[in-house]
Write a structure and sequence with these properties.
Helices cover 62% and strands 3% of the residues. The longest helix is centred in the middle third of the chain and has 40 residues. The protein has 20 helices and four strands. It is an all-alpha fold.
Length: 538
């Protein structure tokens, strides 16, 4: 491995450190030198001279561009132009991060490295904040309790800090399930999991704790061992409850209407609802483009600068209007759709190994003519399998029927690669009226979809998960890579659900996390197709 090959991923890890840890906000002398801008320009210059970059096509780009355009247009007619353009400037920096993320990751090895770097940076961020809280007593006294804060200013508020931790849990869990071969990596991941739980507890954030519990429920819903999972979650909750000080116990009990509920806690809960109601009221006054990004505080009557929305739905409607609702909703829908498709394709190949084997046998160069179905039946294809392959990529769709003969044909270009769909071959005089058993289709595809396979699907997935941690790092098998991409896609969808769930009590519209998930989605779909093609050619 040449050092130059890892230059961009290493610089991207440094960019993640500046974006999450924000040392220039903790050590203010670094902020005087504009460290983040100098690093960003250096990073962009390095990327310009490093060969092998590519920006794969994806519908996520259009969704991100639509939201950015909405911010720009809304800022032109904002109530307070200075506040609006300050918000737009910060968001444009996140778009630069989004582009650099996609350009810097060129293969599966880089992708794994960047995802591990994200968890490592979060570990440094949470660890430093915990050190300042437990050792140096750095905290805020709010709602009648001492609350841990992040070391930065942008996301250092207890609720925002808890949100940052909660949004990292799905990716942390996906990497844990990959079972990396390095014992130090596995221990480091579990160490971060423990730190994340402690961090959420001592922030005193009720929405953060409820979001973490919601994530545990998402994990249980997707688990095949629900009883074991329920028992483990119950033990964690009991341990966390015993670990909590009394004031924090009362704080979390107040979420469900029990314990000592102070006036501040009640006002905090009511403020979320008021933020949504205020956003709807502003929407009626500025229905098309809203009052402007970052201008929600100026929408309260009788106040020169009122509170923030503390509600992402009220924030979107009030600040960006109908255009914001459509563009933001479009981004969320596109991210969900792309990751659902990726998981379906991975599960298809994991559940039907014959598709992968036939794809490997029938990969052709673009200059090589594809054999006709008749030639395949006459023995011209490998083992007489009735498949035609185009554009090198094996099948990756989930709508597979195995009752009749099928051909694998490209349908359309998506994420830079050609997805595949199972389509029936037209009956010919040779096949008309013949029984399915007479057709030269691989055994696992000729059987009915309800017929049990020799190897259970769950066993195949467990075996693939065991190799997911080393699949791309050491040039491992394809099932391990497929499981890795499937777990990452699931983590992205879970994070989206957490952000929408916590959005009722958090104004997280302008968080970098949305674009981080967008970049991971683009890379996951593109590198999945690249990895399948690489194994198909081998």
């Amino acid at each position: 491995m040449r050092r130059r090959d890892m230059l961009l991923p290493l610089m991207l890890a440094g960019y993640l450190f500046l974006l999450i840890f924000r040392p220039y906000e903790y050590w203010t002398v670094l902020g005087d030198f504009r460290l983040e801008r100098v690093y960003m320009l250096t990073f962009m210059a390095a990327a310009f001279f490093v060969p092998g970059k590519r920006l794969p096509s994806s519908p996520v780009h259009l969704a991100v561009g639509a939201l950015a355009l909405t911010l720009l247009v809304s800022a032109l007619g904002a109530y307070n132009g200075q506040a609006a353009w300050r918000t737009v400037e910060d968001y444009l920096k996140y778009i630069v991060f989004y582009v650099m993320l996609i350009l810097s990751v060129r293969n599966e090895r880089d992708f794994r490295f960047v995802l591990l770097a994200f968890v490592a940076v979060m570990g440094l961020y949470v660890g430093k904040s915990m050190w300042e809280f437990f050792v140096h007593g750095r905290h805020v006294y709010r709602m009648g309790i001492r609350r841990m804060v992040g070391i930065d200013v942008t996301y250092g508020d207890p609720n925002s800090f808890a949100a940052s931790i909660a949004y990292s849990l799905p990716l942390f869990w996906a990497l844990v399930r990959c079972r990396f071969p390095s014992v130090w990596v596995r221990r480091g991941l579990w160490l971060y999991g423990g730190m994340a739980l402690v961090g959420i507890i001592f922030t005193g954030s009720r929405s953060g704790m409820v979001t973490a519990i919601f994530f545990a429920l998402l994990v249980l819903m997707s688990s095949s061992r629900k009883l074991v999972g329920i028992f483990v979650v119950f033990l964690l909750l009991v341990f966390a409850w015993d670990f909590m000080p009394d004031d924090l116990q009362q704080r979390f009990l107040s979420t469900f209407g029990y314990g000592h509920t102070g006036k501040g806690a009640i006002e905090s809960a009511e403020g979320r609802l008021k933020g949504f109601q205020q956003g709807m009221e502003v929407f009626t006054r500025y229905p098309l483009l809203g009052i402007g990004p970052g201008n929600f505080g100026y929408s309260w009557e009788g106040l020169s600068s009122g509170p923030k929305s503390h509600n992402v739905y009220g924030e979107v409607a009030g600040e960006l209007g109908l255009a914001g609702i459509l563009s933001f909703g479009g981004l969320v829908v596109v991210l969900f759709r792309q990751n659902i498709l990726l998981r379906r394709r991975c599960r298809l190949l994991l559940s039907h190994p014959a598709l992968l084997r036939s794809a490997r046998r029938n990969v052709h160069d673009r200059s090589t003519p594809v054999r006709s179905p008749a030639a395949a039946r006459d023995g011209g294809g490998s083992n007489g399998a009735r498949y035609s392959m185009k554009n090198h990529v094996p099948p990756a769709e989930d709508n597979v029927s195995t009752r009749h003969g099928y051909a694998l044909k490209a349908t359309q270009q998506e994420t830079g690669e050609a997805p595949y769909r199972m389509k029936p071959l037209p009956d010919t005089p040779e096949t008309a009226g013949s029984a399915p058993a007479d057709r030269t289709v691989p055994q696992t595809l000729a059987a009915d979809r309800h017929t049990p396979q020799p190897r259970p699907v769950q066993a195949q997935r467990r075996k693939a998960r065991a190799g997911a941690g080393a699949g791309g790092l050491a040039g491992g098998d394809l099932p391990g890579s497929l499981m890795f991409y499937s777990l990452v896609a699931q983590a992205v969808m879970q994070t989206l659900l957490l952000m929408l769930f916590k959005g009722w009590g958090d104004h997280n519209l302008y968080r970098y996390t949305w674009l981080w998930l967008g970049g991971v989605t683009v890379l996951g779909n593109f590198l999945f197709a690249q990895e399948v093609r690489r194994h198909g050619r081998s």
